[in-house]
Amino acid sequence: MTALVVAVAPALPLHTAGKYVAGAYIVFVALLLIYVAIMGIRLRRTERDLVELGRELDRRRDADSGRDLEPVP
Amino acid sequence: MPPTPNYGKGLRGLSLATVVTLSVAFALVFFYAPLDADQGFVQKIFYLHVPLAIVALCGFILGGVFAIGHLRTGERIWDMRSYVAIHMSLIFAVGALITGSIWAKASWGHWWVWNEPTLVSFLIVFLLFATYQPLRFSIDDPERQGRYASVFAIVAAAFVPLNFIAVRLAQGFVHPRVLTLGGGNLPGPMRLTFLISLAGIALLFATLWKYEMTAKHTRMQLRALRRRVLGEDTVRPLGRSAAPS
Hints:
The complex is a heterodimer of chains A (73) and B (245).
Chain A: H1 2-8, H2 14-69
Chain B: H1 11-31, H2 46-73, H3 76-108, H4 117-130, H5 132-137, H6 142-169, H7 188-230
């Protein structure tokens, strides 16, 4: 399918303005990648906070159950 | 308790639609749309640069519309919507400026032409909205920050169509005029390719806006949950921030 598309596609005159067109489209992709990378860093921070919250909850639950088991004087 | 909005809903479908539309658009750009008789291959930048500029300008207006919602209802979520729309539009505007500059270099031999009204007016709109984040950052109180930012967003959004009309009325037509309300001068295949590119970039904007809203909303929910479960003192103060909290 790809070979067919390439075969019927007109030849691109890359020798003349190709570098400018490629540059423009690369800028677009680069901006998109930078944005996704920044969002990825933020997502990792949220994940870390979520894990921290889970640990804190476990610690409190353990502490509460420990108090329940203490013998009444 | 008011229902919690679910920004992640439909994000997968929207992302898929964006990928498909952009893939089709770029395939059409390079393998279907004919070469421009005047500009040749360089004109292929048009299918990226113009949709980026149009979507960025529409995003600025959308930010203003959301800001009206914030001032009317007083709900912080509208402020968040406005902030994210303007933030996304600034990124798209950077893309439009850089791709436009590359096109100018290839077409006119200069990276920037100061006596061309379209370029300069777009730069003015960009710089105007670039002051939105420093404005927010300069205000400590979140209530006041949101209110002032909304007023700014509405006034600046009103400036966008005014600026656009002023440029259309200007006489220095160095910048190509291919889009008009009457349909423009684009031949059929070029117009189809352009419209699909525009749809693809608009979908990309919608996807990234929804993505960022989901991320910000999740973070807010997490902080609220921590406050509710572990108590107020366990939540670190956010500190000064341009983003709504």
